[in-house]
Write a structure and sequence with these properties.
Elements: E1 2-7, H1 17-25, H2 30-35, H3 41-48, E2 55-60, E3 74-78, H4 84-98, E4 103-107, H5 109-113, H6 115-119, E5 124-127, H7 133-143, E6 149-151, E7 178-181, E8 184-185, H8 196-200, E9 205-206, H9 209-222, E10 227-230, H10 239-249, E11 256-260, H11 268-276, E12 279-287, H12 291-297, H13 302-306, H14 310-319, E13 323-330, H15 337-349, E14 354-359, H16 367-374, H17 400-414, H18 417-440
Helix pairs in contact: 15-17
The chain binds cobalamin.
Length: 441
């Protein structure tokens, strides 16, 4: 019995031609292509949960063609929203060739939220986390019958400490420049635009330290490139757990990038520890510099209340020897052309090591999408445009063209020789001073 785990092809940008051209030709944007070279941890976990009598293959369409003529018993496809169209095409083509001889299953956040749509193309739809429902489906399959929908809510809640090491050995080691490791799920902030919190919930749940170490060790054994990125949406929410985990990293001697919220910047002692145990960059969502936008994004006003802390907390992080990579969203309701200039100034004044500026995107299942549907502000529903670099909203003041121009302008303003050199000088000085202090101790 054979299973193919398929990650469909995705595009960084779809129809925003000016940005597409920029990405292709800019000397400074090469890292975007590297950063986007991600494998699906979800599929690798499912592979690890699959009994040994199945023969498994991981196919990443970004690196190889789908072998449509090869006969598998089960096809397991994953899809973010922008991959959905391609995922359905693959499913359709496979069903055209093989009909009832194969079962096409699909999962992940997109279909979780639109199961009826996926049901038009696929035989089995998985809703929610699948660590318990996938093995249930496989045993149903072996018995000769299976359901069309497997919903996580019908099974025990997922115990993160029971999740096996993802099957990194199924990957082509040459393809992936980053090792993505997930140590926790859930984030309490509940931002209007975020689909991850809708999927993994607001409760912060963690894997055991032993699991994390095992995953890192296994990934480094099978993959050529060793840069680790933790995919937790907000990794250091529990200080004691984090410290204990960080100390375990010592023997591994790793360098890593992690995502956190800006409140981490107030804890200088913890930042020093982060640096000591290998953190090189913190990826932080600043989202907007307009207090009215921040108030809209997050009903608890948590984000809004952090705004005045941004500069001081960023300084603390950099002083600890860690670079700050900021995430900003363009196109929130109160944005004007001048708010985009403010973002450029903010990035430069605060010496951000890098920034990901994306366009506001109303992902299925988010509160933002509900609001946009109510307000009649969705520009179209072509999933392949949900890239975060294509405009999908009707903005009260800005046209599609203006938003595209501003996006390009920000990237051009911050990814250039002048800022790169300025930033490097600044970081060099801070890191040298830090080293001097340490040597003098
Ligand atoms: C690492 C990461 C990446 C990596 C790797 C992507 C990948 N293939 O996993 C890279 C850098 C490439 C990336 C890029 C993008 N990403 Co990203 N990324 C993540 C991140 C941080 C972690 C993903 C992860 O490893 N999760 C852990 C695994 C275990 O969870 P999972 O994949 O959901 O799998 C579980 C279930 O969904 C289910 N499942 C999944 N697939 C299948 C299939 C079958 C058959 C079955 C049975 C079950 C099943 O089983 C798994 C176990 O429970 C998530 C946020 C998050 N917390 O998940 C965002 C996230 C997935 N990314 C997102 C987005 C939007 C993007 C981008 C479009 C752009 C951007 N600006 O970030 C690009 C597009 C790339 C693409 N593939 O389309 C969104 C997707 C939402 C959506 N509805 O589309 C997320 C949820 C972030 C968010 N806050 O909204 N991303």
């Amino acid at each position: 019995m054979k299973i193919a785990f398929i990650s469909p092809k995705f595009k960084i940008v779809n129809r925003n031609e000016s940005f597409k051209e920029y990405l292709t030709n800019s000397d400074y944007m090469y890292f975007y292509n590297i950063f986007w070279s991600g494998f699906s941890n979800g599929l690798l976990i499912l592979a690890a949960l699959t009994p040994h009598d199945f023969e498994l293959k991981y196919i990443d369409e970004n690196y190889e063609n789908i072998p449509f003529k090869e006969k598998f018993d089960i096809i397991a496809i994953t899809a973010t929203t922008q991959q959905a169209k391609r995922a359905y095409q693959i499913a359709e083509e496979l069903k055209n060739i093989w009909g009832r001889e194969i079962i096409v299953a699909i999962g992940v956040s997109h279909v979780n939220l639109l199961p009826e749509e996926a049901g038009n193309y696929c035989d089995v739809i998985f809703i929610g986390e699948a660590e318990n429902s996938w093995p249930a489906f496989l045993s149903d399959f072996k018995r000769g019958g299976w359901e069309n929908i497997y919903n996580a809510d019908d099974y025990d809640p997922i115990d993160l400490t029971k999740i096996p090491v993802p099957r990194y050995d199924l990957l082509n080691p040459d393809c992936y420049k980053m090792i993505w490791i997930q140590t926790s799920r859930g984030c309490p902030r509940n931002c209007e635009f975020c689909s991850a919190t809708k999927f993994f919930g607001r409760k912060y749940r963690t894997k055991s330290e032993e699991q994390v170490i095992k995953e890192i060790t296994a990934a480094r054994e099978f993959l050529k490139f060793q840069q680790i990125l933790f995919s937790d949406d907000n990794m250091f929410l529990h200080r004691d757990r984090s410290i204990s985990l960080l100390k375990k990293f010592k023997s591994l001697n790793i360098s890593f990038v992690a995502q956190a919220d800006i409140s981490i910047g107030q804890d200088r002692e913890f930042l020093e520890m982060l640096k000591e145990y290998g953190c090189s960059i913190l990826f932080i969502g600043f989202e907007s510099l307009d207090v009215r936008n921040l108030a809209l994004m997050n009903k608890s006003k948590w984000k809004m209340n952090q705004l005045s802390n941004y500069p001081a907390y960023i300084r603390n992080i950099i002083q600890a020897g860690i670079g700050v990579y900021g995430a900003f969203i363009l196109g929130y309701d109160w944005d004007t052309r001048s708010s985009f200039r403010d973002i450029i100034k903010f990035i430069k004044d605060n010496y951000l090591a890098g920034a990901q500026i994306t366009l506001l995107t109303h992902l299925p299942g988010t509160d933002l999408r509900k609001r946009y549907i109510n307000e009649g502000r969705i520009l179209n529903t072509e999933w392949e445009n949900y890239t975060f670099f294509d405009v999908n909203i009707k903005h009260p003041k800005l046209s599609k063209k203006e938003i595209e121009e501003e996006l390009l302008n920000i990237y051009r303003s911050i990814y250039n020789k002048e800022y790169l050199e300025k930033k490097n000088r600044y970081y060099k000085k801070i890191f040298q001073d830090k080293l001097k202090k340490e040597l003098a101790k």
